[in-house]
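Chapter summary example.
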Amino acid sequence: MKQSLALLLAAFALHAHAAKDDAHVKATIEQHRAIAEAHAQAAQCLESGKDEKTCHAELAKTCKGLAIGKLCGMRHKH
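The structure predicted for these 78 residues follows.
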């Protein structure tokens, strides 16, 4: 009886852990999509002929609180 109860509790714990992991994965996916969208908008800004300073300012505003750094965690070598 004690073994059955222990197995049942272990099964519930594993299920709860898996659900928590699924929620974390879904949240991470959404964050990556939001960051990708911010960078797509920055690319469109540059393609429209605006200067890099202006587009980076718009990107910084979009990325505030979304990722590390003012440019959504991405930097170029220049």
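To summarize the output: Helices lie at 2-47, 52-63.
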